[in-house]
Design goal:
single chain, alpha/beta, Rossmann fold, eight-stranded mixed β-sheet, 11 helices, 39% helix, 14% strand
Length: 275
């Protein structure tokens, strides 16, 4: 590993436009957080009006994230986690779950939103095993070359690469499979890839389309729901863990008894086999 460039933490972040909604801050609003602007709240409310099950889906996704991190650290022995598209720090952050299971766990958060990274850096100021990186996961080379990534992640040991509720913001023109492969390629055997992804809502297709259209208009970020077959196509060469690419309710049966219905969210955990 390269030594961490501590000066990187002092770098000024880009100027923030509070009038332009951000997916990370809208997500924070839906989770009940406070790190969002009026424009984010308006965009979040509009999407939820069109698709009322959306906020509950994102909260369920957060539960799934915690479940996967707990499993990987406590049961599979992974102590390095790369959280891509991490968003604004909120309840049940990856480093909190991971370090509760193993205090030696190291976490690198990566997000393109300056506010998300600013708040993450403030939260992590006294935590030497967790870092926050301002970068675009759509450019894997720049993420992997970042000094905080290189200084924290030892690629000769297993790593958990987390992509939760982020790949559905990348259209097919971005060649998502290429991005997924770029992040799994340097991982040592025994590493894991965990993904959650919005799926087509067959029960309310028009509501989903309306919400997605308004969301894209306000944020400039498209939403592309995908099927289990489309997500599984990204995982060639990896061993998919049971129960496979499934709605997260198959992973968390307690969600099936919740009073708040959710729109479909796919989840998958895959392992890089021994070579």
């Amino acid at each position: 590993m390269d030594p961490i460039d501590v000066a990187e933490l002092a770098l000024s972040l880009p100027e923030i436009d509070p009038e332009r909604p951000s997916p990370a801050r809208i997500y924070d609003f839906w989770l009940g957080g406070s790190q969002n602007f009026a424009a984010d709240r308006e965009a979040g409310r509009r999407a939820a009006e069109a698709m009322p099950t959306l906020p509950a889906s994102l909260r369920a996704n957060r539960v799934f994230l915690g479940h996967v991190v707990q499993h990987l650290v406590a049961e599979r022995g992974v102590t390095q986690l790369l959280d891509l598209g991490s968003g604004v720090p909120t309840v049940g952050n990856v480093h909190e779950v991971a370090q509760a299971a193993n205090p030696e766990a190291s976490v690198v958060y990566v997000d393109i939103d300056p506010i998300a990274i600013a708040h993450a850096r403030a939260l992590l100021a006294e935590n030497p095993r967790a870092q926050a990186v301002l970068a675009d996961l759509g450019d894997p080379a720049s993420v992997l070359a970042h000094p905080l990534v290189r200084g924290t992640i030892d690629w000769t040991r297993p790593v958990a690469v987390l992509m939760f509720a982020v790949l559905h913001f990348m259209p097919d023109t971005e060649r998502v499979e290429r991005i997924v492969r770029a992040f799994t390629e340097p991982c040592a055997p025994g590493s894991f890839l965990a993904i959650s992804h919005g799926a087509p809502d067959e029960a309310a297709p028009q509501a989903q389309q309306t919400a997605a259209r308004d969301y894209a208009t306000r944020t400039g970020v498209p939403f592309t729901p995908r099927t289990a077959e489309q997500v599984e196509a990204w995982l060639t060469g990896l061993e998919i863990e049971p129960p496979g690419v499934q709605d997260i309710r198959a992973w968390l049966p307690e969600l099936n008894t919740s009073r708040s219905p959710i729109s479909p969210v796919l989840g998958v955990l895959a392992r890089k086999p021994e070579s």
